Amino acid sequence: MKQYIDFFNSCRKEIDEGCSPLLNSCREKAFETFRRVGFPAYKSENYQHIDIAGLLKEDFGFYLNRSSININPHRVFHCDVPNLNSHKHFAVNGHFVDDETQKDLPATVFSGSLNAFAEQYPVLFSKYYNRIASAKDDGLSAFNTAFVQDGYVLYVPENVVIEKTIQLTNISAGNINSLINRRMLFILESGSQAKLLVCDHAYDENPMTANTQVVEIFAGENAGFDFCELEESSPNTVRLTGNFVRQAASSQVRINSITLSNGTTRNNYTIDLAGEHAESYLYGMAIADSRQKIDNYTLINHLVPNCRCNELFKYILDDEAAGVFSGRIIVAKDAQKTEAYQSNRNLLGSRDCRMFSKPQLEIYADDVKCSHGMTTGQLDENTLFYICSRGIPKEEAVLLLKFAFTNDVIQGIRMEGLRDRLKLLIEKRFRGELVTCRGCGRVEN
Predict the structure, then answer these.
(1) C-alpha torsion angle, residues 365, 369, 370, 371 (rounded to 10)
(2) Burial of 9 (C-beta count, 10 Å sphere; 0-12/13-18/19+)
(3) What is the phi-psi region of residue 429: left when phi exceeds 0, alpha when psi lies from -120 to 50, beta otherwise?
């Protein structure tokens, strides 16, 4: 922690350089929060199995102001999803890459750089940026706010519907061990609708890369937003994310988190259902082997009556992989007529992999429909025997059962082209083939 405090104090001018004054104005308060609370403490209630400070103790380099890296993502990262028909954007090491895809969107929509948004929409930026994250007194999010230099913003004005999916490819690239701070802000005003796919990729597997990421989602009345994240990084990647959602009345937010390859991942989700008849759907899936680790923490707050949430996380682990799920749903005293469902199901393929699960409900209202549960086990031997008895080789039978296990998570994705692509990627993953949806070239330094 000390090296980051010293770095902030000694390099403040370089951190601010090239950034919007509005973005820089948030740093000091965030830095004071980080200095006061620090990184989340290892073995504390919500961080039983992951040591954030330990993961970030490495002497990482910072890519300030796009320094030391020059990459053309349009050439080296295709990341095409057939039949998705998407608007394509790119970000390299946390910096949005300017392109001309904005012209294909409705004129009133903003889809682009965080700094550009601050300059063009200063009132909206001040109203929304860092509003949910800063309210949670979270040291990791405060760290991100203190150091972040750019990010991605999607702003959809009232009653505007974006028909095509927007696709953002996040690329971590470079030839030194580096720490990258990324930011995303999504503002959907009343009656607006959009779908966004974010693909996380590591350009090179050799250097160690740590990514901190903060996502803030504001869904206005009757707004609809689908947010899907697909992680395909490297064993040397650390990914630490904080996702914050605030929903107004009758809004619907659907989040899908898919981890196909990674090193160590921690995803935090905090969702506030603040308007009546709001609906939240949170689906996650992780496939991990070797010594990969995936840790998901969720907190859904039902603050008002007549809201609904449905939460499903599935893990498929093998070798010495470790999975963690800690889910918490809180139903406030006056949040009557709440419907809240939480499920965690896990499939273990070896004696050495580990799964830690902690589903939780806190209910302070008396007229609700709520349930939560967890199952952890291996493939059913009787089912496996039955399939093999029909002439299917055992390896294929195992693959079929694993694939069937993932089906309900995949079906929860409402981007048809992406569903088909995921089925192919998951099948390759189970077969031990290279999992990638990208085409790569060479970094130009």
Answers:
(1) 150
(2) exposed
(3) alpha
Q: What is the pLDDT of residue 61?
A: 79
Note whether residue 441 is domain-resident. no
Q: What is the pLDDT of residues 142-177, one digit of tens each?
A: 999 999 999 999 999 999 999 999 999 998 887 788
Q: How confident is the model at residue 348 (pLDDT cuts 50, 70, 90)?
A: very high
In a domain, 390, yes or no: no
Within 10 angstroms of residue 226's Cβ, the number of other Cβ atoms is: 21
| Pairing of β 209-219 and β 178-188 | parallel
**pLDDT tens per residue, range 47-72:** 999 999 999 988 787 877 665 556 66
Domain that holds residue 107: 2-380+411-430
Q: What is the pLDDT of residues 315-324, one digit of tens each?
A: 999 999 999 9
Count of domains for the chain:
1
Which tens digit of pLDDT belongs to each residue from 364-415? 999 999 999 999 999 888 888 888 988 898 888 988 899 889 999 998 898 8
Contact assessment for residue 262 and residue 294, using Cβ atoms and an 8 Å cutoff: yes
Q: Is there a domain that residue 386 lies in?
A: no
- Predicted TM-score (pTM) of the model is 0.93
Q: Is residue 78 part of a domain?
A: yes
| Of the listed ranges 293-307, 395-409, 420-434, the one predicted with least confidence | 420-434
Residue 439: predicted pLDDT: 44
List all residues 6 or more positions away from 313 whose beta carbon is below 8 Å from its beta carbon: 283, 284, 285, 286, 296, 298, 325, 327, 343, 344, 345
